[in-house]
Amino acid sequence: MNQARVLLLIAFLAILSWLWTPILTQTQDTWKEDADTLARPDYIATDLKQSMFNEQGQLTHTVNAVKVEMFQELGFSHFQAPIFTLYNQEQNWQLTANEATLYENNTLILEGHVVATNMDDTSMISHINAEHIRVDIQNKTMLSEQPVTILGPNLTIKGQGLLADLNTDSIELNNHTRTIYYEK
Fold first, then answer.
1. Which residue among 7, 36, 55, 101 is least packed, with the fewest CB closer than 10 Å?
2. Residue 46: how many CA atoms within 13 Å on its side-chain side?
3. What are the distances in angstroms from CA 37 to CA 41, 77, 83?
4. Which sign does the torsion angle of CA 155, 140, 46, 49 carry?
5. Which has the closest alpha carbon to 84: 128, 56, 46, 117?
6. Predicted pLDDT of residue 97
7. How far apart are CA 64 and CA 47, in angstroms?
8. Comparing C-alpha atoms, which of 79, 132, 128 is closest to residue 103?
9. pTM exceeds 0.85, yes or no
10. Diameter of the chain by CA atoms?
């Protein structure tokens, strides 16, 4: 090798080591601290009671929760023991679960002993039970791929997967398993 190539190689290695030195000398604690910063909520509220209204001033939904953690940078809020009530004139539903996550696009994911209660006592369907339900708050629809149980005053329906339109009170099961009718 000639002298120019050797000098060029030494200069290249010096620049490379100078560029990589901060990364190689960074402790694992610094990396962990950056990850922990993202995992910390921007604020925490306890005993939350919140009401949301649309542009016309009509109540769209209320939220009660034991605790909520807001992660603004990540774009979601996490609720413990939430109670969401969706208002749509005649078709009002109350949703409870062990925990829930609300995303900025008004998608609500409820998990753990989810119960959707129809607030209309005269409806054929009074409750929907599942372990996981996704709710589009704006369109007032519910979706689940998990096993669900639909309860009414005179019936019990079991199935896998659910698509419910809370505006029209229509519910579709992807895979119907069993229906039991009760006599009055």
1. 55
2. 0
3. 9, 16, 29
4. negative
5. 117
6. 95
7. 7
8. 79
9. no
10. 101
DSSP-based three-state secondary structure for 161: strand
Instruction: Give the separation between CA 82 and CA 85, rounded to whole angstroms.
Output: 10
The residues that bridge with 64 in the sheet, in sequence order, are: 49, 83
The domain locations on the chain are 3-37, 42-181
pLDDT tens digits, one per residue of 20-61: 777 777 666 555 555 555 678 888 888 989 888 888 888 888
Minimum mean pLDDT among 8-17, 68-77, 138-147: which range?
8-17
CATH superfamily of 42-181: Lipopolysaccharide (LPS) transport protein A like domain (2.60.450.10)
Q: Could you give the 3-state DSSP secondary structure of residue 16? A: helix
- What Rg value do the Cα atoms of the chain yield, rounded? 26
- Number of residues that make up the chain: 184
E-strand spans in the chain?
43-53, 59-71, 76-80, 83-86, 93-96, 99-103, 107-118, 127-136, 141-152, 155-165, 170-181
Tokens of 43: 């604020």
